UniProtKB/TrEMBL annotation, chain A:
One of its GO terms (cellular component) is delta DNA polymerase complex. It is found in: Nucleus. The keyword Magnesium does not apply. GO terms for molecular function: DNA binding; DNA-directed DNA polymerase activity. This is DNA-directed DNA polymerase. GO terms for biological process: DNA repair; lagging strand elongation; mitotic DNA replication. Keywords: DNA replication, DNA-directed DNA polymerase, Nucleotidyltransferase, Nucleus, Transferase. Belongs to the DNA polymerase delta/II small subunit family.
Automatic annotation (TrEMBL), chain B:
Residues 546-974 form the DNA-directed DNA polymerase family B multifunctional domain. The lineage of its organism: Eukaryota, Amoebozoa, Evosea, Eumycetozoa, Dictyostelia. One of its GO terms (molecular function) is 4 iron, 4 sulfur cluster binding. This is DNA polymerase. Residues 1012-1083 form the C4-type zinc-finger of DNA polymerase delta domain.
Amino acid sequence: MFEEINDENESLNELFRKIQKIESKIKQNKKPYGNDKNFGLDQDYKSTERLDVIIHHNKERFLEKQPKSTIKSDNDGGATTTLVLSQHSNLQYSSIYASRLEKLNPILVENVQSKYPGVPIQKILHMKPGDECIMIGTLYKEMELKPNILKAYAQDRAMLPVLDNRESFIGEKDKLFFEDNTGRVKLIGSKEMIDSLVTGINVAILGKGLPDAEFEVKDIVFPGIPPQPHSRDLESLKDDAYICLISGLNVGNPNNIFQTQLLMDYLQGNLVDNGSDLLGKICKVLFVGNSIHKESEPIEAFVRYSSKSEIQAKQAKKAIPIKDFDGLLCELCQSVPVDIIPGPNDPTNISLPQLPLNSCLFPFSIQNTNLTTTTNPYQSQIGGRLLLGTSGQNIENASRYMTYENRMALTESTLIWRHLAPTAPDTLTCAALDNDPFVIEQCPHIYFVGCQDHFETKLLKGPNDEIVRLIFIPNFSETNTIILVNLKTLDTFPIHFDTTSFFPQSPESTE
Amino acid sequence: MKRSIAPSGGNNDKKYKAQVAPPPKNNYKGGEDDEDDEFEEDDDEDEGDEFGEEEDEDDIDVENIIATDSMDLDVQDDGSQQLFLWSRKPVQDLVPHRKPLIFQQLEVDYTEIKEPVPGMPGPTVGPLPAVRLFGVTKEGNSVLCKVHGFLPYFFISCPPGFTEADCKSLKHDLNETMKMSANQGNEKDIENIVVSIDIEKKKSIMGFNPNPLTDFIRITLILPKFVTRCREIFESGRHHFTIPGQPFRQYQTYESNILFALRFLIDKKIAGCSWIELPANTYKLSETPVSTCQIEVDTSLETIITREDDSSAPYRILSFDIECAGRKGVFPEAEKDPVIQIANIVKNNGDTEPFIKNIFTLKGCSSIVGAHVIPHKREEDMLREWRKFLVKVDPDVIIGYNIVNFDLPYLINRARQLKIPEFALLGRIKTTISKIKSTRFSSSNLGTRESKEISMPGRTQFDLMQAIQRDHKLTSYSLNNVSAHFLNEQKEDVHFSIISDLQNGTDDDRRRLAVYCIKDAVLPMRLLDKLMILINYTEMARVTGVPLSYLLGRGEGIKVLSQLYRKAMDENFLIPTYKVTGKGEKFQGANVIEPTPGFYDSPIATLDFTSLYPSIMMAHNLCYSTLLSAEEAKKLPPETYTTTPYGDHFVKSNTKKGLLPKILEELLSARKKAKDELKNEKDPFKRAVLDGRQLALKLSANSVYGFTGARVGKLPCLEISRSVTSFGREMLDKTKKIVEERYTIANGYKHDAVIIYGDTDSVMVKFGVETVAEAMEMGRDAAKFVTTTFVRPINLDFEKVYYPYLLMAKKKYAGLYWTKPDIHDRMDVKGLEMIRRDTCLLVRNVVSTILKKILIEKDLKSAEEYTKSVISDLLQNRLDLSMLVITKALSKTQYKGRVIHNELARKMRARDPATAPNIGDRVPYVVIQGSKGAPIYEKAEDPLYALEHNILLDSQYYLDKQLKAPLIRIFKPIMSNPDLIFHGEHTRTIAQSTLSDNNKGFFGTLTKKKVCMNCPKELSDTESTTCINCQHKETSLYQTSLEKVTNLETKFSEAWTQCQRCSGSLHQPVLCSNRDCPIFYMRTKVQLDLIEAKKTLNRFNVEW
């Protein structure tokens, strides 16, 4: 399936030479790269015919629903200021939950009615103790250990962020509540059940009402895997086409300059013969989160006095990796379309959905239309395949508040919940949106999670023949591994760049 | 069914007036709202005012009301299952002639009955007093026990030559005089006001008297209300009354100012909240019950007995809360604004969960899980139904938060406004209308408190707010703050300006309101449980012998007085009634050994005198009954009396043991016993009772000294109190001398011990040793040694070691507190700006952080650095606003001069009357930058307003007026020049209104033209962020904006998810306006800042 990459041995000097070459090119060429059709190391590669894959970006999906007052670039000052001020009371989180339930309610009704025909569905406030019924609503887990700003706040000058990096916030006295738009009840069930769920999931619950606003749980019904769209584009995909997934590139991390360069060379076909079959078939490179290195700052920095010059120096330092990345992208975009999905450390906002990295960060590469900066979470359609993915925050956050078999199973659960990030906004920072963009309305073919510590994949088959390729993309800077996915077959391979031999190693294919 | 028509307005008002007690003797300017009903309650005024008036209102309308009312209740009984559920269990097994009736009494008062009950002792013609004991049986049935045969009495000194034979003529003359002064209605019809005159052998408690008992005249009257008048006849001389055969003179009266109900308890040796037994065949069921109690009996004074039993009956506790819909800008007024919701929680004492949780609402309301919603179309109906609910549930104890001063008066006044006269029948006596009185009491601990008192016979009102104000020192007594403090949860608070909007909204909106209302009723119940308030107060009632309701409604003195009377009675002592002048010489208070300020990095042992004042009184036999005048002392052999350091003389206990020492001994030995039992007790409930008891005993013992020193008290005796303090001073000095003389290098110790500070009952000793263990050992040794030099039971005890110890000034110190040698217990801070309300949170937090750094981390350098960074943050306006909010209570409208928070309230009222603070509210403010030299009151601003308008705060004010003094105090013992902290590089960058980024953000949007983000140049239409010259800086400018956004996003998310959690609902928007919540201002600020920051960021989002 995977062809062995040329065994030719290149020396370290060779590599340096290449790096210098690129650097000198960047210096020489002030002009936008994209305009120069003949520029680049591998002109042939760039025009590979097999790149004829239809790509639909769904860049707007995670953008459109934000309240206008916060996202609209506003040019006429005073008038909107009053508008914004009068609206500020609406800038809260309740609407996102309401929207979530509104979207998933019909699905839950359908599911639960087919599973338990005849059992009445009731609003919480109409529930009578002793009656068996079904209720539909949102889960809320009360946890003692959950980071709490009130506890943290009273302590100092309220300047320090609430930092609690414990692995798990599960405690002995966690309580599970359930609410719809009429009220809230406490769910009575096993500790295992309570621990296996998180705040924000929409479910239908079969059970019996108890006095004192409690509800005994007999069964929990989830929305289930959403329907999978079928695109004619997929049929047009005659031959193998690959997408390449790279996460945690961490450009600017002094420890992985070589690997990064090796990767870039590889992707541009510099390390292999021009005729490499595989490379030519890559129709998209996705950078999934943490592409740019960020120095971690000690907490003290938040309260320490910094002079203006210190701040400027800090900023200048931060700008270096961004420039480097811009340079790399310049090269890469010559040969292949690239999407950049921001991650937790990237220079954009921190709450989900993360906005696309700003074009002003990439003054050179952005001019090439091959480069697209996108939101996190990410959704697009490539060659008829629906791609959905995040830079990992959703899974990482949920994993701290629930028990799970393994992370892959947890990721699978998000599909069954039909929700990418149920813990947003409760524990996962998220914008105060009028509409919940994280509901998974269509089942993706490829569902990836970036910024993981290892590579893992699973092919999931849904009850209605949905097929989902789940992928954990490992951090490149730690594992030197990238992932290739065959769009046609959904086969998935990691490629490992061994720094000791400077060559990408092909591990055994997983499937 | 015939219903009486409610009387018309004018009539009605008159009727209420008619029921009001007679005007006060000492006229006191009452509050504006309730002039008719208010008069100052004077503790020693005529007893009759309290409840006696009601019986003689032969008012047709009251009877009509009652008739209608009982019909209403009966009708409801048949139809409504709900009312059935609310009711108490029926009475079983009540056989007066065969079985005793046993119940726990909770409330004691008395009434006047027109006719004597046959078979009961006492006069044979009425009116007569009957003591009413309200209580609950073990089975949970409510009981009213009317005790007959007890009459009020007092004593006067017996003039020489007065004999038994003279009694008859004195009785006649006095009776005539009393009748002449009788002025109103049925008083004139009473033939025998004076029931009897007797001579008894007694002794005055005042002054040591070695002589045998002498004669006193006991005057027994028919009704308690005559006592004051009769006393006056003897005391004032105004009536020119003379005892037959005696020249005209004034007489000292004895025991003439004690509350009648308390007198009964004392004479019958019944303690508050105790169990009462009526033996079989000594009581009978009342033929015409006057109360709504399930069991109503009559019994005789002679047969009633009290039982030893420290359990508690399953009495019913109702917690309620009301919501009113105020108009914009005014605090709700009962005359105008409707009551819209009443939430109720009912629990049986001893149960963990309430069995009733409901809410009465005006207009429809969506249902609430776990609570019964009872909607009403009309407010009148709601109030009527609520009262029926109350009567059905028949609570023994009514609790709530601020119910006595707000909820109850509001309901009663509102019902009057709506002409529902029967509403005021809230008590257990069918014919007694609840009335509102204004009272006030003064106490050295609590200061003068004005408060309302609602008469509601048979039900004990227990306002949690009063209890917590009494027992705990908090920065704010709002329910928010109190529940945050004790229950560790923030309460969502709805500003009263939104209440009306919610009320006028949909059923769901009202449901929201109902949820808050229920929470406000649940919280007092939870506070009651958590703080074990009823348990502790019950124990206090049992220890001191006063009824439960006295503990909250009256001062401290009554508790000591009750004990003193009880003890005095046993020894045939009489307590004179003094006219309290409130004047008296001042005497030197507690002593202090001047502190030697410094930072002590070696263990400081603390030696404490256990129960200092009580033990002094016991050791030196200080009492009213042992006091000698200087002349008397001269006549006695010197070894028989003690001369106190102040120069007063008291006989020694071998001559005559004082009453106060006896009381104290009993209290302290009972406390020791309770503590011993506590050690072995496992059952948590019994432990709580024992702990409550030992605490009550300790507090009682300590209040004895205060009682003798209270210049406006019942029985002040400065000779005692000043002797106590002078002994205290002498003991401190002596301790210092002994310790410093004994623990010296000369005596073979490693170091010379130094007393570095001493206050009232403790001394701090620096032994010079290195370790806590050594200091503890020496401390114990020293305590033991010093104790031997004092008279028993004075005891110096080693308690704890402070290490390290930062002594700043008198009563201002901090240290780590060690009671075991291996690890410190906690950080102990005294007298610093930790809990003062007029300092902002910043000061409190900074002080505590610095102390932590100094004491725990022992890192002076880091404390200093930290302080500098705080100052720098402050000056650069980087602190969270809520750190800088100062609050003051707006207690009146008229202040002398311009007071900062009053000026601000006025300013806010002009802006928006709806949200402006009202009288009684706490006004939070921040100090903003104003013109140079502007007075401070001009610079105060509403924190929210300052936030929303991005007004810069006056950081210099905060630095100089808030931070500086406490910081210098802390650093002074540590640094040679603490002023240096306030100077240096970190103080150079100061946020100015013109340079502030924030400010530019806000006002910047007001200018039409966009300006380059890096320089002041105006931008062309095609440019969005920077001018062409600054374009190279765009990325770095972007990053700066970005950083701001990410920080704000995190804060926003933390704050608002917390609010969402706190509000108990994910799907509904947060409405809370709880200004006591630490994140209230922050969450608003972050909301605004985030919008601004995102706007800035969006300027970059122009497609290329």
